[in-house]
Structures are given as structure tokens and as C-alpha cells.
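Quick start: what a row looks like.
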Amino acid sequence: MPVDPAAHLTVSVLYPTLLNIYADRGNLIFLQRRCEWRNIGFSINSVGIGDPIDADGTNLIYVGGGQDRDQALCASDLAGAKAELLRDWVASGSPMLAVCGGYQMLGHGYSSPSVSIDGVGAFDAETVAGPDRLIGAIEIKTDLPGPTGGVLVGFENHSGRTTLGPGATALGRVVHGHGNDGVSGMEGVRQNASIGTYLHGPLLPKNWWLADWLIASALGISVDHLPSLPNEAEAAAHRSARKAAGS
């Protein structure tokens, strides 16, 4: 099914003033550009503390990363109706991108010596803080279809060690870098069209085809039906990040 001329992508961004570190707002800018270049409408709903999530008016949910104190504030607000909505969103196959702190909060919880945060439980994952940070360029191999053979690249910077439960599937296997915990060889989580990951940088400009996969999933079409775009600059950015990771 081709793109409807009236197609419009609405992204609900959770807590954009609190969960906005590591330049990951670039993911939203990149999604907007990929839509605008195809004459697809684009808008953002900012969801702050106390604001409801308009699920009926949303195609894609985005959750960024933040400091422990900011995550604790957001986690308190997520309890109740918002948590139930997010669990249903992921279970129904609707698309979401949750990065670092957002990824941790969408799991069962996050704990460190200074804070304990209850998670949403949308992903079967649990995170505890480790003794040091896992930092550096990272490359992973996924089973998602794309022109890079499913390879995603980015930058990780996290102290959390995330363990996936039996109900979770990793986003990919680490080729270079640390991933979820530095030992399992796994990175991120994927359930249907919802993704949690530690890849920063931001993620999407270095992995343009993943942005298109999210756009297509949000619009309910095959990615093959999106109008093609020239991707020379994006491919160069991917190659540069992959070289930085060690390939």
C-alpha cells in the first residue's frame, strides 16, 4: 500500500525537558526531515509531568534518557494510567523508540545505591547500576531488514546493567562495544515495533533505514512503499560510526 497523500506522523515525546541528554533530540529532528522530504505531515506532542498521553492521536512514542533524579521524577508520573497505556501500546505492536534512561524505565525497574525506580513493565527487563560506566562507540547486528545488513551503530554511555527476562528478545548482538551489561553480548530489546536501546549519538541519523522502518511502522505500511531518498550523507555517517566502533 503506497503512502496516503494525507499521511501524517504524530510523535508523542515523553518528558522532553527532563529526558533530553546525549543529543538524542536529533532523532526527532531526523524523523521530521525524513517525513518532510517525502511530503508526509509531521507533528510532536510533548507529554510532561501531569499530562495525559493521547494514544488515539499518536503514531509513535519516543522516550529519551536522563539523569537518575530526572528518571525518578518521570517514573513517579508514569505510575498508574500512563504505565498501563504504555504496556498496552507495546503489547499491541505499536511503534516506540526508548533510549537509555527511557529504555530502563520501560522495563521493570532501575536501582542504584542512591535510587530505586519502579518501571512500567512494558519490556521484560531489569536494570541495576554497575560499578563503572560502559562507554564508547558500539556496533550491533540485528535481524531487521536494511541496506546495512541489519547493522546498527551508535555511542553508549551508561552505568546500568540491563538483564532481559524470558519474555524479552534483544534488539541485536554486540559486534563491538558493551551492550546491555558488558557480558551477555546482547544489546537493547525489541518487541514487535517497539525498541529499547542504549545507542546514542543520536541513533537515527547514523542508521537512516531504522528511521524509515519506524516511520513506515507508524504509518502502517511496508517500508518499501516509502518514497526513496538520496542517502549518501547518511551512509557516510554510518560508515564513519562503524569505523569508530572498530569495524
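That is the whole record. The domain at 8-245 is CATH 3.40.50.880 (Rossmann fold). The first strand starts at residue 8 and ends at 14.
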